[in-house]
Amino acid sequence: VRNPATSAARRARTSRFRARVVSHGSVSVRPMEERDLEVAAAVVQLAFGAFLGVATPFGDRDLVRTRFRADPASALVAEVDGHVVGSNFAAAWGSVGLFGPLTVRPDLWDRGVASRLLVSTDELFARWGTRHAGLFTFPHSPKHLALYQKFGFRPCDLTPVLTKGVRDAAGPAGSRAAAVRFRDLAPVEVDEALVSASSLTGASYDGLDVGREIRAVLDQGLGDVLALDDASGLAALAVCHVGAGTEAGSGVCYVKFGTARPGPGAEQRFGRLLDGVESYAGAAGARVVELGVNTARAHAHRAVLRRGYRTSFVGVAMERGDDEGYNRPDAWIVDDWR
Ligand SMILES: CC(C)(COP(=O)(O)OP(=O)(O)OC[C@H]1O[C@@H](n2cnc3c(N)ncnc32)[C@H](O)[C@@H]1OP(=O)(O)O)[C@@H](O)C(=O)NCCC(=O)NCCS
What we know:
14 strands; binds coenzyme A; 14-stranded mixed sheet
């Protein structure tokens, strides 16, 4: 059921930002196309480089081509006078909607370009029927917090991104969890596995579905998806990117999303999942496992710390929705929404 107050607020925001954008000339937003990729990727590097004060903030990680190819219709570009000056990437995870990285060319900051991109992002969420929306941002930046608060997102718990060396992670031989790898499955088996994955994620948050990320990994060869079974069916799942040209970067196995079935025994299932990830990372030639876990998922956060993961940096989850989403103590989920 659509909340009329929320819809009215959205309409007001939309007309305000449309008016402002017009006053700055010809800023327009449209779906990204293949021909935009090079410039969009350059703007992403430039914008984060300027904000963070580093030349190559992403190294050889790629969030632009991978996310565009995952679903071109959910990638947006902003144009000024026919030039691409910014972009944003939304993602539908079933009932959950996420976005980022949102970037604008630094010489055009503070002129409403990002706000215009967010108006169009909101339209995507409305079309998808997103129930809970979220993003990862810099908790120390008044500008970032204010920008997203304007669109109804509230700063919630911190999301640390943590790493662990694969050599430290290896553990005693024989303790490795035997995970099924989706890339070894036949197409019809993948279809079945996607259905099981959807009911596993839905057990933590109604309607949560990371099928898009699973397909992206398989279609683009970004890494692999690990599945662990037990007597009750699918017990745990991890969507992993590995190496250059993915969201991980050279030498890294990045857990884009991981979860264990909640309820009694969840901690053991979660431990088995991380065993499987660490073992896969080593076999795939990664030196480091990287993952994020919101601190509101208190049990999962404590469990990764106990396994020797160390925080490399910290973001904040900003969220919008009538419920608390899945950043809750009983959700055994690993992801960071970057
Ligand atoms: C963050 C970013 C996308 C914003 O783009 P932008 O086009 O400058 O943003 P907008 O002009 O639409 O909106 C910025 C808002 O923040 C407000 N703002 C700026 N500094 C502020 C401050 N110190 N305190 C409060 N509000 C502030 C502006 O006034 C404006 O709000 P208004 O429209 O109500 O006036 C851009 O700065 C960028 O690319 N940064 C580097 C990459 C990055 O950090 N991306 C986001 C990662 S989560």
